[in-house]
Amino acid sequence: MSDNTKLVAEKRTDFGKGAARKIRRAGNIPAVMYGHGTEPVHISLPGHDTMMALKQANALLTIVIDGKEQLALAKDVQRDAIKPVIDHVDLVVVRKGEKVTVDVAVHLEGEAAPETVVTLDHNSLQVEAPATSIPENVVVSVEGLEAGTQILAGAVELPEGATLVTDPEALVVNVTQAISAEALEAELAEAEAGIEREESDEEAAEAAEGENAEGDEDKAEGDEA
C-alpha cells in the first residue's frame, strides 16, 4: 500500500524557466498542486526527499505549506533526459476516503510448466482504489501453468477496496509452448534457404534484363545499317 510521506514545501512567487533553474540549483524541485476546484498552488519541494518518495509508484504525499497539510498524488513527473534528477512535478489534491484511478504494476510470481514461454501483455492495470490505500502492485501467479493458458484482466485478484477499470477481457498473461532447439534450427535453415532463393531469382532477373538490353542494342544497330 502507498506510504504517506511528508514533504515540507515553500510557496513560489517567481515563475518561468529562470526561476525554475534557480530552484533546482538550490537542490529543490519546482512543482504545482491543484485539484478539487482549488486554484493551482506553485511550490518548491525538497529535492532529495521528493526523489526518494517518488521512487514508489503512486506514492501518497502529505504536502505541508505554511504549517497546513494536504494529501496529494504525483500526476506527472518530468525527469531530466540525461541527469538522474526531477525537473518538475504536477501534484493532484486528494482527500481521505476519496477513490482515485491509477495504473498499478503487474508482478508475476512462480514458474510455469517446463518448455513454456510466459508473456506479460499488460505490465500494469488501471484500478480505482482509496487514495490512502493504493496497492503498490498486483500479483499474478503463473506457477505450473501449461501452454495455452491465458489470464485476462478480469481474473486478476485485486487487493481489498480496489476495483478494475481496465477492460476485463484484456489479455494480461499468455503462456505458449516454447520452440525446441531442433524446430528453431529448422526455421532458421528455411529462412536462409528462402533468402538464397530470392537472391538467385534477383540475379536471374538481372541477367535476363541484361540479355534483353543487349538484344535491343543489336536490333537498333541492324536497323541503322
Automatic annotation (TrEMBL):
It comes from Terrabacter aerolatus. Residues 198-225 have a biased composition (Acidic residues). One of its GO terms (molecular function) is 5S rRNA binding. The keyword Protein biosynthesis does not apply. Belongs to the bacterial ribosomal protein bL25 family. CTC subfamily. Residues 189-225 are annotated as: Disordered. Gene3D superfamilies: Ribosomal protein L25, beta domain, Ribosomal Protein L25, Chain P. GO terms for cellular component: cytosolic large ribosomal subunit. This is Large ribosomal subunit protein bL25. This is one of the proteins that binds to the 5S RNA in the ribosome where it forms part of the central protuberance. Residues 7-91 form the Large ribosomal subunit protein bL25 L25 domain. Keywords: Ribonucleoprotein, Ribosomal protein, RNA-binding, rRNA-binding. Residues 99-177 form the Large ribosomal subunit protein bL25 beta domain. The lineage of its organism: Bacteria, Bacillati, Actinomycetota, Actinomycetes, Micrococcales. Pfam families: Ribosomal_L25p, Ribosomal_TL5_C.
